[in-house]
Amino acid sequence: MKNTILQPRFKDHPHFKDFWTKGNGKQLIDFSGAEVSFKDFEEFSSYFYHVDETGDQVVKDIYFTKNFREASKEMEQYIRNGISEDENTPQSIKQMFLQTQTIPEWLDYGLLKSGAELCMRANLDSLISLRDYCLMGGYDFAYLNKPLIITEALKKGAVKRLSETLDFWVNVTRYDALKPHHKGYEFAIKTRMIHSYARLSIRKHYKDWDTENWGEPINSWDMMATYIGFSLVFLHSLHKLGNAYSAQEEQGLFHLWKYVGYLLGIPEKLLPDNKKQATEFFYMWTSIQPPADKDSVLLAHSLLNESLENPILKYEFQRKNLRYLHICCTWFLLDDEVCKRLQIPEVSGRKAFPFAKKMINKIYNRIISRELRIRKGNKDQMKVLKDYLRITDNSVFH
């Protein structure tokens, strides 16, 4: 591709200006104390055309030279047992695993523990935040969604897609999960391989990919934005739902996702340390994203209707009620303009459930010990994950 000089092309468009002057973007600035500008735009925008070349080469060397079962078995051996410099393996494998096995000097296991505890302690509010703010809000960025559409995520179905996201999130946010060769580490490396496999497949099979406008498929700058969703946007959602947290927990959450990003091959420069930095990074990135398009609406409604398709709840009235509650939370957590663009249905009494939840959380935070909330949150989240994995193991969802 010819060298493209990217501009903050949507900075004067209504969707961008409204978000940052009166919508959730304005709330994020107030929430974080960010000083947003485009002074570093050129420095960061080059990552729109940057990808994880090491991960891509691993896929070429392992997954494209063997059948999938053999390749997966070989990769699991590396993940679980590690690798040394003198092993007889492809250079790409050595490069990736020697990087991910090396503990960066900045890593603080105490902060990882605090971040994991916040994720568990927020219990089902964590899952509401992931679904109704992070995932749903992400669908408003049209270019970000193109890999999902092209790899036919809609055909897979929202139940399966949500199950995979939940499986990843839960497994990287438990105690000690990210130590080399532990479960969260394994999920990070496997997710990195999925990204590279999807990127190479898009490049090979989808000739109409618009690199100049959409960036490289699953590029490093889009990856940064996705993981800001798991940190900054997630934290903002917990705040909006009335959850209290300490400065240590807040710092720990950003530290946890910085390390997950490091394992996934995202350049360290793109991984924010705190909410101020994350908001400033996010501001620049949103200026290259147009608002929701027809694909965004399809993804949003697929997620909304997941509640109706999901057999975890036995009765239809339960599924309809769950869908209604998610719609209420979506309107509460996202800007009205975003909800309208995504064609989220208007429902009556939509403020009642989120406001009741907010009040209950404030009381709950005061009267229940932190340790008990962590234990209960972990137990409840693991049960939800178990239910999803049980129903998505059924061939109907593959």
UniProtKB/TrEMBL annotation:
Coiled-coil zones: none
Secretion signal span: none
Q: What is this protein called?
A: DUF2236 domain-containing protein
Q: Which InterPro entries does this one have? A: Lcp-like (IPR037473), MPAB/Lcp_cat_dom (IPR018713)
One Pfam family from the record: MPAB_Lcp_cat
Ranges for domain ER-bound oxygenase mpaB/mpaB'/Rubber oxygenase catalytic come to 157-355
Domain of life from the UniProt record: Bacteria
Lineage runs:
Bacteria, Pseudomonadati, Bacteroidota, Flavobacteriia, Flavobacteriales
